[in-house]
Amino acid sequence: MIDDTPLIDMQRLAEMRDDFGAEILPELHALFVSEAAVLVERIGAEDGADLVPLVHTLKGSAQTMGMARLVLVCKQAETALHEGRKTDPAMIAHLVEQSADAFAGECGCQIRNSDKIGSAVMSR
Q: 105: domain CATH number?
């Protein structure tokens, strides 16, 4: 179940700290927010099969960042799209924001506009 999945995989976050150093996490967060904002905007503007590569890219970025719940939702969205069903761009945008904020909170990053990630999608 989606709600049972943590926003952040703490083991992955610990691996990132060990592999890259805690001081690089704010920069990785900023890069994720920047990339995710573009993807979320495009996800809100596209439909059908055109969404699959966008959702797949978002899933990969979320996996790298340890955003477990977002990864699960992206996997489910990919499956739905492959089966010809629709997905909810506003829900994905909201979860991207939540995930970015949770990551920032866990690593002490300054939140940089993550609350604006889905504004273009959610206002449609």
A: 1.20.120
